[in-house]
From TrEMBL:
This is Helix-turn-helix transcriptional regulator. Residues 9-63 form the HTH cro/C1-type domain. PANTHER family: HTH-TYPE TRANSCRIPTIONAL REGULATOR, METHYLPHOSPHONATE SYNTHASE. Keywords: DNA-binding. The keyword DNA-binding applies. Gene3D superfamilies: lambda repressor-like DNA-binding domains (1.10.260.40).
Length: 75
């Protein structure tokens, strides 16, 4: 699941031609933390996800597309 969120963020960032440091700065986080989110080793907090989405000119919902389905099969 974390990899899917990170991939959506990375794909959108690359489509916009943004560097990781530039996105991190716009989302008010560190470059290292943004790298970890994109790599799927960290979950962003809800507020961070909203800031990332705003910096990517999209919505948090768009970044989460496809993440919900795998969760439905858990449990």
């Amino acid at each position: 699941m974390m990899q899917r969120i990170g991939k959506h963020i990375r794909d959108r960032r690359l489509a916009l031609g943004l560097s990781v440091p530039r996105l991190a700065n716009a989302a008010e986080t560190t470059t290292r933390y943004m790298e970890m989110i994109e790599a799927g080793s960290r979950y962003p907090s809800l507020m961070t996800l909203f800031r990332i989405a705003a910096a990517l000119d999209t919505t948090a919902s768009e970044l989460l597309v496809g993440v919900e389905a795998p969760l439905a099969s858990v449990g």
